[in-house]
Predict the 3D structure of the following.
Amino acid sequence: MKYYLFGNWKCNPTNAQEAKKLFSDTAKGVKRSEKVETAVFPPFCYLAEFAGKKKEVAIGAQNCCFKESGAFTGEVSPKQIADLECKYVLIGHSERRKLFFETDGFVNEKTKLALSFDLIPVVCVGETDEDRTAGRAVEVVKNQLAAGLKDVDVKKVFAAYEPVWAIGTGKACGIAEAREMARVIREVLGPDTPILYGGSANAKNGAVYLKEAGYNGLLVGGASLKADEFAKMFQEIEGLE
Ligand code: PGA
């Protein structure tokens, strides 16, 4: 079984010196391993500095444009990201959906374009607190998958289940709910798509999602900004049978 430990730095750190330190400390805390693949997703401004530099840590972008090039002020295209030796790109993170009005249609266009440049899209899905309370969690996630991955070869993408209410709140998803959603996503995507869990994952709870809830890896936000915590997560995952 291959596992994945992915760190989403979001809009952090705020200067190059700290970013370089976090990257080198992260690389020191993990190993290149057959069993666990580690990747980090720094802000765009650090991608060129880090991509292809450490064999222990693959690099991904946190977003990409839905077009290859042209008049799209402020955007970075998947072709430009691929050209930097990045391997992954996050698509449809809930913060993009909520704060930057990204729709499933955009997610679908970006995913297809990223694939055309041989990037591996990590397509994020997840319900809000309101959706879950109303009993719509499974329906929302299924709809996001159907629309976001329409006409996509799902064997070439990763999916990340990140319940919105669990992101950055310290309230990680319960194992039973996480297991149920992994089952639903697996039913939709089939056996070949790695499925990650994200949402307040840390060194204490992270490996449990892999061991007991059927996930292939973790997408880690806050805890990936602490190299020692991230290293512990790596060790926990490497220690799984
Ligand atoms: P968190 O973020 O680990 O800080 O909850 C996860 C994510 O947004 O990918």
Summary: Residues 3-238 form a domain with the TIM Barrel fold (CATH 3.20.20.70).
